[in-house]
Design goal:
single chain
């Protein structure tokens, strides 16, 4: 029997009861040809009633050969390039058979490649389809397995890591599932394999940032798996990529909640990386705030990291940025907090703060924003810390700091 010549006819033939595997394979091949060659046919498939239910049923009908699975999943991946149909498609039950096909044929590169494309297209389409992928049993495991099994397939690595990064923004329960299926290990391996790809490095760092935002376990695991070193390496290689640097600093901010990770950040050159990022990102206030928070957390209660920040010019850059954005109270608060932290316990840093205009920067923040509680608190604490050095009292007295502090 001749295969129907249009999308509607092919869908009807696939939905007909009793269709055998050979016929299904032929119909899917024709459907694939149509949607790949004609945008109108692709739109027709995406909007056809029950199209995704039909394809899900074909993929889930045993026994389905790798060829049937690959062609069916490719058709899905093409249709799902239209983000508007991703929600209804996910609700129609396409994720379970795609995940099952990927699990059944782990060595079939087409099944894996098109399967990852389907999961990726659903993830990038919005929170609802992304959550459907993340919560479907076996889908995350299949995605991670594809990354592990086909490490040199650029499309799989790029789309797989992007899908994981997006889904890692979801609930802590989903993050736990992502962690438990080995996604952190897989993404770090991808970053190692594609160290010269800025987009993949940024996606990987964004994933690590998301995973470490709220999870103590993820922070610990990323540190144990040399994730901190991977972030430092990427920031060193791609020192002009602002998105990557911003993501790297945000990741350090959260990873530094763990005491051992703070030491690892210092040992890996992370303090220098943060300072260099601040130099590059200082033209965007929102990014500066992120870098300030990263430096503050990474140096907190760590004398070695505080000293490193002083020696690599971090204090000078912080003060330059504070002077540049004198009228932004949130940034001034972060700057005062950071100077307070860097001055605490490190005599070298106290001297640097005084020598490069830090006292004036703090005073200006306090006088410009007199009603800002955070600036007053951290500004006063910074000045009091500097007073511990008798040699710096001349700066303090010259600025009439006592009267200002007493007025707070």
């Amino acid at each position: 029997m001749a295969s129907p010549a249009d999308v509607d006819g092919l869908l009807a033939a696939l939905a007909a009861p009793g269709a055998d595997a050979d016929a299904a394979e032929a119909h899917l091949a024709d459907l694939r040809r149509l949607v790949l060659s004609d945008g109108a046919d692709r739109n027709r498939l995406a909007k056809a009633p029950n199209a995704f239910q039909t394809l899900a049923a074909v993929l889930g009908a045993p026994p389905a050969s790798p060829a049937v699975q690959a062609r069916g999943i490719q058709v899905l991946s093409v249709a799902l390039q239209d983000a508007e149909v991703a929600g209804p498609a996910a609700a129609s039950g396409i994720v379970p058979p795609v995940a099952a096909a990927m699990a059944a044929f782990p060595a079939e590169q087409e099944v894996q490649s098109f399967g990852v494309a389907v999961l990726h297209n659903l993830a990038v389409a919005g929170k609802v389809p992304a959550a459907e992928v993340a919560t479907t049993e076996g889908a995350l495991a299949a995605l991670v397995k594809a990354l592990e099994t086909l490490p040199e397939n650029t499309a799989i690595q790029t789309q797989g890591c992007k899908a994981l990064s997006i889904m890692s923004e979801e609930s802590e329960m989903i993050q736990a599932t992502i962690r438990d299926v080995g996604a952190i290990q897989a993404v770090l391996h991808t970053m190692d394999m594609f160290e010269n790809s800025a987009p993949l490095q940024q996606t990987g760092i964004e994933f690590l940032r998301n995973m470490s935002r709220k999870s103590d376990k993820a922070q610990l695991l990323i540190g144990e798996l040399s994730g901190i070193e991977a972030i430092c390496k990427a920031m060193s290689i791609f020192g002009s990529e602002e998105g990557l640097l911003t993501a790297g600093c945000a990741a350090f901010r959260f990873l530094a909640f763990n005491r051992d990770n703070r030491t690892k950040i210092g040992d890996a050159g992370g303090i220098t990386a943060i300072v260099e990022a601040l130099k590059t990102l200082q033209s965007v206030p929102q990014r500066v705030e992120s870098v300030f928070k990263a430096m503050n957390n990474a140096t907190y209660d760590n004398i070695g990291n505080k000293t490193a920040a002083g020696r690599c010019g971090g204090i000078q850059v912080v003060i330059e940025v504070m002077e540049r954005y004198r009228n932004l109270p949130e940034l001034q608060e972060d700057g005062c907090r950071l100077l307070r932290n860097l001055a605490d316990g490190v005599e070298l840093n106290r001297r640097i703060i005084a020598d490069v205009g830090g006292i004036n920067a703090v005073l200006f923040a306090m006088t410009t924003h007199p009603n800002h509680v955070g600036i007053s608190e951290h500004g006063c604490a910074t000045l009091l810390t500097l007073c511990k050095n008798d040699a710096l009292l001349q700066y303090i007295r010259a600025a009439d700091v006592t009267r200002l502090v007493e007025s707070r």
